[in-house]
Amino acid sequence: MTFIPLEGGCLCGAVRFRMTAAPIVTHACHCRTCQKVSGSAFRINAMIETDRLEVLAGEPQLFEGADGARDRRCGQCGLVVWSFLPKFGEKMAFVGVGVLDEGERLRPQAHYFIRSRHPWVSLPDGVPAFETLGDAGVEGARERVMAVLGAG
Ligand SMILES: [Zn+2]
Ligand SMILES: [Zn+2]
Predict the structure, then answer these.
(1) Ligand number nearest to the C-alpha of 8
(2) Which of 22, 23, 62, 69 could form a disulfide with 46 if both were Cys (CB 3.0 to 4.6 A apart)?
(3) Ligand that lies nearest to the alpha carbon of residue 27, given by its number in the listed order
C-alpha cells in the first residue's frame, strides 16, 4: 500500500512540513498529560521517525517544557507541530493529527491509558485498547521502533 504524503503546519502558516512515510502507529492517548496538552479528552498521536518529517517552510523551534518534555513549535504563533518523549529522544516524533491538513486520514490503531478515559468517550469495536500502554499489533512497528532506539 502506497502512502500518500500528508502535509501539515502551524496556525499562522510560517511552519509547513510533510510526513513522507506512514506513521509507525497512530494512537489515541487518554493519559492525563495528553488531555492537558490537547485541552481535550484525548490526543491522537502519529508516531514517526523524525527524519521522515520534511520541513517545507519555517524553522520549528525546539522548546523545553516540564519534566524534560521537548517539542518543536512555530516561533511566531507558538503552535506545537510535533513532540518528543524522553524515552525516545529527538529521533522519534509524535505529531498530533490535528496539525495535519487531512488528519482524518490517520485513524487511531490503538487506544492507550483508557484508565483515565473520560467516561462519555466510547471506544470503537475492533481497535485494541489498553489500561496504560500496549502493543497495537501493527505490522513492522516493532522493527521501526527498535531501529530508532538502536541508533541511539
Ligand atoms: Zn505559526
Ligand atoms: Zn498520553
Answers:
(1) 1
(2) 23
(3) 2
Compute the distance from residue 34 Cα to the ligand 1 centre, in Å: 21
CATH code for 6-150? Answer: 3.90.1590.10
Q: What predicted TM-score, i.e. pTM, was given to this entire model? A: 0.94
Given a contact cutoff of 8 angstroms between Cβ atoms, the answer to whether 60 and 73 are in contact is yes
What residue spans define the domains of the chain?
6-150
Residues, CB within 5 angstroms of ligand 1 (ion) = 10, 12, 14, 74, 76-77
Amino acid in the structure at residue 123: L
How far is the centre of ligand 1, averaged over its atoms, from the C-alpha of 23 (Å)?
A: 23
Lowest mean pLDDT among 64-68, 94-98, 106-110: 64-68
